[in-house]
Amino acid sequence: MIVVQEGTLKNPSFKCVFIKDPHCNWRFANNIRHHHEEDLDLKWGFLQDYMETNKIDDLVITGDLVDSNDEKKWSFKQYYSNKEKLLKFKKNKDFWSIAGNHDMLNGFEGITETPFGEFVRENVIKHLTQSPICLGENSWLYGVDYSRHKEVTKKKLEMISNNHYGFPGINMVVFHAHVTPNEVGCTEWTYGELLENFPGIDVFVCGHYHGGFPVQVFLKKIKQEDGTFIDGTDHVIIINPWSFQRVVRDYYNEMDIHIPEFVEIKIENTNGVWYLEFKN
Predict the structure, then answer these.
(1) Position 32 pLDDT exceeds 70
(2) Strand ordering across the sheet containing 139-144
(3) What is the pTM of this model?
């Protein structure tokens, strides 16, 4: 895969927008940010207009679609309101999402009895982990749901990487874990660990960590017999923007910094070579 300058690709075979952790919670009381629902409407409305203007049909969400993972906390009115809002902004688009910790019962016990699970069953969203997107021959956009155990996530990423390493194609993975360029207090994966451990993955799209970083482009790491790494010629990118919606908690205040972002990508295959361009 080769990353090219924005505006280069004229006939992309696939394009989508990625958003991180929208934490939808219309009709939930909030004593801190009284304009919270208007804020959600504004952001989703802007995103809808952007996708329609640029003829983008696919929205991919990095998990934490909803803000509460306990179905018992949701009244019917709250569920129905969130469903109707998402359908309003969705229109004829496809919304794909993995399951983040806020989408799972008690944060880790699956999605069957959760609002996220209901949204999947009612076709409000598609569960990317269960239904990966085929991008072309040996080319996929995969989802990996949240796990509180790093080894579980590692095994799933390894399986995807091993299945595609050494074969032509482009492979992207959306997953829900604390990923940062360098080690900080909450880090589960650094960028270097992703590059060295999963050489069969070309695009990493990261959720869960609500801070954000510019999209970064790297050269693919090739492991040598002595355990060292050298740079290859193909590119790898890590997409890790700010969360689309800040979490509303009692320990946040109005002055907390939050810079909502989304990232658009386009891909195109020319003479067997995959090209990708992105836009923050």
Answers:
(1) no
(2) 133-136, 139-144, 171-177, 203-208, 229-239, 216-223
(3) 0.93
